[in-house]
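Comment thread on ticket #2218

A.B. wrote:
> Attaching the input chain for the structure job we discussed in standup.
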Amino acid sequence: MEDLLDTIGENLSRLDVRSVVDILLIAAFAYWVLLLLRGTTAMAVLRGIAIVLIGAFVLARVLDLRVLNFLLRNSLIGLLIAIPIVFQPELRRALERVGRTGRRAWMGRPSYDVVVDAVTDAAANLSRQRHGALIVLERETGLEDYIDTGVRVDAAPSAELLEGIFFPNSPLHDGAVILRENRVVAAGCTLPLAEDVGPGYMGGYMGTRHRAALGITEDTDAVSVVVSEETGYISVASDGRMLHRLDEGRLWATLASILGRPSAKSQ
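C.D. wrote:
> Ran it. Output below, let me know if you need it in another format.
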């Protein structure tokens, strides 16, 4: 213990301004990573790794276990290899956020002038008719991988077009419609499903359409609007969270707030 304290004191005496800046930058990066992992299963994995390493370090020091001490001292390379593998989804999400920030700074926000009104009107009409629907609005993160799973449309958005796509028994009504800025890009698209939906919707049950609406917002910054075929309820998903039972006015206001539209609905 005395040797450890002497080592710490010697290292502190060597600190200069550059060393302090270096430490602060590393601490800020670690804090940013922890914010990204907060509330995810990766945080539990990280806690487990920390507990195992701390326990092994304490045992090795107290019981003077030479082999374990050697493994801990030489495990840095293994950890550097393992971290990208274990936390691949979280690292990908972090890099996507950095990329979205850079794109927004250079290119500005995409336009959603027509989309919000068309999606709101279509969702309201589909809700009244109890026709299920899933509409995804692409933002900074490209959805080309998911667009390729469907049928390309490339049409101007309108309530009538969206209602026609989701009319029961139509060829494309089971998949998702993806919109990019002011265009309907594709229909009948397949989306990733959210795995852990929690107890929030319908007593903990969430159908495939709602899980897909939530799943695409967990992997990207897209916004999805889903209409329940069973109840007619309208929901909006964004950033891995879902708002339920929205009426037409609340739906428009929610989309306008997320997408940066003006505060008054066009007539």
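A.B. wrote:
> Thanks. Noting for the ticket: The mean pLDDT is 80.
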